[in-house]
C-alpha cells in the first residue's frame, strides 16, 4: 500500500528497497487520475516520472505543487484564464530545490484564481471538493494542494499562504499546514499576490513531514532579497525537545470560553469547547497556557487591514498580465485597447473586483486613509504580538469557527465569528511569524485544526510545540479514505 | 519681453555590469532582445534584486551635486500600463530619493549660474518600442537599465543656460565615471518644461513639456522655438495650452497630447527590496572617492594658477587630462610649461594616435623630468617636444633618452662661443653681409648652423644672444 503513507514511512520503504521511486510515482499518478473527476485537485497531472537521484530525505518521494509556482516546460496557470496556456521558461527556487532533492512532481494543483480567495471554488478549471465531504469546500486558496494530501495521493504538497491560504485549508482537510518565517523560504518563481504577505508554505499529514520539507526548502536565495540567512538548523531533528514550561497564550476575545456565548452556532460552540478540552490536555502535558485580553477593535481590524494591503499589492503585482509579453493577446486598435480586452476577458469578476478595490485604495486621495492606515494597523497588531511574545513562546487558537463549510453556505461577513475567528491567521502574514496548523478534533466526522504562531525566526520552536501537541490529538497521519481504489 | 522659466529632467543611464534589478548585462548592443532576463520581461514570479553598484553611483552623483542623501535606500513602484513597461510598474524612488535639493554651478557667458535641483532618483529604464505602420516591436535590451533622473527646479532662464547646464552635468557624470552619457546612444536624455511669464507676474505661466530630447542642440532649438511660439501666443492675448510637445527634425515643436489631468501613478513602497541603511561609514568612503569637479578646477586654474580661461577650460574639461596635469604640478613642475606641454604635445598625441590618456606611454613622472630640463634651460621648449615624440615612438623614457644620447643642452657660454666663432670663420661671406649690408637674416642662418653643428644641443636662446653679440663685435671691429 502506498496511499496515505507519510514521508517517513515511504523513506523507510525506499531505503530498504521494498519499493522504487517509479513505483511510488506510478501509484500517485493512478490516484491522481482516479480522484480527479470527483475532487479536481489538479490543473495538470504529470504522467512521466522524472526524478534526479540524491541522498536527501525527499529522494523518490512524490509531491504536488500549487499551480502558481513557475515550472520550466510545465503549464502554469495560477488557475486563471489569462494564463491558461502559459508555459514558464524558468524554475521557481522551491521547485528547483525539490527537483534537486529528488522529489517527484505528480501534478500542479488547482487554486483560487491567482491565489485570491479562500474557497477553492474560483479556479478556471472548476471547484475543488473536500475529501472528507464532497458537499463541502476545502478552502483555499491552496485548495488542490490540500485535497491531494487529504486524499492520500501524495504525502506532501506545496502551497502559498498570503492570509491563511495553507493553514486554513489544512484545518478543513485534517492536515498539518506550515508557513515558516517570512524570508525562510524563497518566493522566487511564486506568482506574486501580495508581496509583503506572500509565503511559501506546505501541507503534510504530520509535523515531522513538514519539518523535513522545510529543511529542504529553507535558506538564503540570491534571487529573493527578503530571504534570511540559513539558521543552519535541522528542524526535523529538533522536534522532540522537552516543552515543559513552554508558555502559550490564547486571546480571550477570539476564543475564550465565553467569547461567543450569546451566539447560537453549534459548530462554533463545539470548536470552542473542544479547543478548551485540548488546552487542558496540553496543560497536563506540561505547557503553561494562559488567557490574555486584546482590544477587540484590533482583532476586528485584521480582516479589513488584510484586504486593503493585499488588494493594493495584488493590483500592482498582476499588472504584468496584459497579454503583451505572454498570455492570450487581446484585440483592439491601440495598445491600451489590446490590454484592456485581454484583461477584461482574462479575469473573473471576483478578481476584477479586487483589482478595482486595490486601485481605489492606492489612489492619491485614498492612500493616506486606506493604504497607509492599513500599514499602521498592521504595525500595531505586530507590535502587540511581539509584546506578548516577550512573555509567551506562542499563540494558540482554533483555525476557524467550525469545520469546512458547505458550498451553498454564506458567511455573515461582519459577524464576530467571521471577522475574528475566521480571519485571525493573517496575523502570521502581517508579522511574518512562523505559524502552523495541526488537526486537533473531529466535529461531525469533519476535521478541525488549531494553530500555533510563534516568534519570528523561531521556526524550530513552533515545530517542536506542534509536534508535542500532535502527540495528544490522536489525529496524526489522517486522510480521507474515500474511493474504491487499493494502491 | 517675457521671463522664461525652464525646468529640466535629465535621464542618464548608469554604467554598471548588470541591470538595475536583474542579472542581465547592461551594455549597448545593436542586436535586439539579447540582454534580457526573466526579470526584465516581467514574467510571473520574478523578483527584483537591487544593484549595489547602481546605488553607489547614484549616491556618488547625489553627493557631487551637493544633495541631501537619505538615511536608507528604498524604492517605490510607479504603476501604469504601457507596452514598454513589462511589469506594469516601474521601480523608482518617490518616498526617499537618493538626493534632495543640491545644485550645480555652471558658467554661462562668463558668469556663474547656480542651477538648483529638486531631487535625484534612481529608477529603471523601460523597453524600447519600434513602430511600423501595421505593428510595433518591443526590444527589451533597455528594460531595467539603471537610470538616474536629475530634476532641476524651474530656475533656468534661457537656452544658453539650459545647454551649459547639460554640458556641465554630462562632464560631472564623466568626472565621476558613473556614465558615458552618450546622447547619440540615448544614454543621456532630457525632458524640458518651459513656460513664459511677465516680469511682473508672481505666478508661473502655463508649462509645456517636451519629452526625451537626446541632442543638446535639439534642446536649444526646442527652447528657442517654444519661446518664440509662446511669446506670439501671449502677444496675441491668447493662452498657452498645457500639453506635451515633441521636437521634429525641422527644429519646430508639435503638439503630442494635451494634459487633461496628471496621471495618478499610485506610488507605493516596493515590498520586495528591503530597506538598506545608508551609514555614515559608507558615505565617508564615498566622499573619499569624490573628485574635485570641473567647475572647481576651472576656477582654481584661473585664480590660483593664473591660467588663461581657454587653457583652464581645455584642461578642466576632461578629468583624466586634468588629473594628469595636476600630477605634474604635484611633482613640482612649472605651471606654464605644464600647461604648454599638456595642451599641445599630450593632447595632439592622443588625437593623432587615437588613444586614451591611460594608453599614453608618457607618464606625468616622465614629462615632469623633461619639463625640469626645460625650466633649467638645459633643453629648449621645442627640443623637449621633439624629445617627447621620439620617446613615444621608441617607447623609451625621455629622461633615459637624455642620458643615453647626451641630449642635454650646451649651456656653457665659452663652449658655445667657441663653436659659433668657428662657424662664423667658415662662413665669412655671411658675416660680411651682416657687417657691411646689415642683413639681419644672417642671425637666423648662424642659429641654424649652431643647432646643426651641436646636434641641436646648443641652448637656442643663449646661442642667439652670443651670435648677436659676436656679429656686433665684428661689425664694430671692421669700422
Shape of chain A: globular
From the N-terminal CA to the C-terminal CA of chain A, the straight-line distance is: 5 Å
Class of secondary structure makeup of chain B? alpha+beta
Task: Compute the number of strand runs of chain B.
Answer: 16
Q: Mean pLDDT score of chain A, rounded? A: 96
Name the assembly state. Answer: heterodimer
Q: Determine Rg of chain A (CA atoms, Å).
A: 21 Å
Order of helices and strands of chain A: HHEEHEEEHEHEEHEHHEHHHHHEHHEEH
Helix content of chain A: 25-40%
Give a count of the beta strands of chain A, DSSP E runs of length 2 or more: 13
Task: Write a brief structural summary.
The complex is a heterodimer of chains A (487) and B (479). Chain A has 487 residues and is of the alpha/beta class.
How would you describe this protein?
The complex is a heterodimer of chains A (487) and B (479). Helix content of chain A is 39%, strand content 15%. Chain A has helices at 7-15, 21-39, 93-101, 143-150, 167-173, 207-217, 252-255, 266-285, 296-300, 302-317, 335-346, 349-362, 364-391, 416-421, 426-431, 459-473, and strands at residues 42-45, 62-66, 104-109, 129-130, 133-137, 156-161, 176-179, 199-204, 247-251, 288-292, 394-398, 435-443, 446-454. In chain A, the strands form two sheets. Chain A has an eleven-stranded mixed beta sheet with strand order 1-3-2-6-8-7-12-13-11-9-10, with helices on both faces. In chain A, strands 4-5 form a two-stranded antiparallel sheet. In chain A, helix 3 (93-101) links the parallel strand 2 (62-66) and strand 3. The radius of gyration of chain A is 21 Å and the shape is globular. Chain B has three domains: 3-280, no CATH class; 304-405, no CATH class; 413-478, Arc Repressor Mutant, subunit A (Orthogonal Bundle). Chain B has helices at residues 38-41, 52-64, 159-176, 216-235, 280-289, 294-303, 309-317, 319-330, 335-353, 364-375, 381-394, 398-405, 413-426, 428-437, 441-453, 460-478; strands at 3-13, 72-73, 76-79, 89-92, 99-100, 103-108, 111-124, 128-131, 136-139, 146-152, 188-197, 208-213, 243-247, 253-258, 268-269, 276-277. In chain B, the strands form four sheets. In chain B, strands 1, 5, 6, 7, 10, 11, 12, 13 and 14 form a nine-stranded mixed beta sheet that branches. In chain B, strands 4-3-15 form a three-stranded antiparallel beta sheet, with no helix packed on it. A two-stranded antiparallel ribbon of chain B has the order 2-16. In chain B, helix 8 packs across helix 10, helix 10 runs antiparallel to helix 11 and helix 14 packs across helix 16 (460-478).
